[in-house]
Structure formats: structure tokens, C-alpha cells
Amino acid sequence: MCITIYSKPDCVQCSATYQALNRRNIPYQIVDLTKNPQALAIVHALGYQQVPVVIAGTQHWVGFRLDKINTLAENL
């Protein structure tokens, strides 16, 4: 499963999300919304206005969601 995190620099919730994924050895890629207008359009099309936006397969969510990260770890 490919996990993409849409984020911006100096985002506390983004950093917490990276750390939680790293502790569980879950690979992910980061897309910086400040440098990628197309990615920003994707995030807005999903209805999100905050970061991080995490897309994992068919699921997506916004913010630091340890419950979602734990579920990902269980299903990998």
C-alpha cells in the first residue's frame, strides 16, 4: 500500500504523524503543499483545509490520527 502525506513545513501534527509511522516501520512519501500546487488542488478536492492529509490506499484523513496509524500497522 502506498501512503502519501500531504504536508507543509513546520507542521506539528505532520511531524507527529511521521514519527508515529516511523516507529511502526510504515513507509510513506511526503508531498509539500507549499511547493506543489497540483497536490494542493487534490487536497482541496477531497474537502480538506488542514494538514497533514494522509492517503493510504482507499482511506484518507486529516490531522494526527494515532488510531488510523495503528490500524494501518495492524493491516500491513
UniProtKB/TrEMBL annotation:
This is Glutaredoxin-like protein NrdH. Keywords: Disulfide bond, Electron transport, Redox-active center, Transport. The keyword Electron transport applies. Residues 3-61 form the Glutaredoxin domain. PANTHER family: GLUTAREDOXIN, GLUTAREDOXIN-LIKE PROTEIN NRDH. It comes from Photorhabdus asymbiotica. Belongs to the glutaredoxin family. Electron transport system for the ribonucleotide reductase system NrdEF. It comes from the Bacteria. The lineage of its organism: Bacteria, Pseudomonadati, Pseudomonadota, Gammaproteobacteria, Enterobacterales.
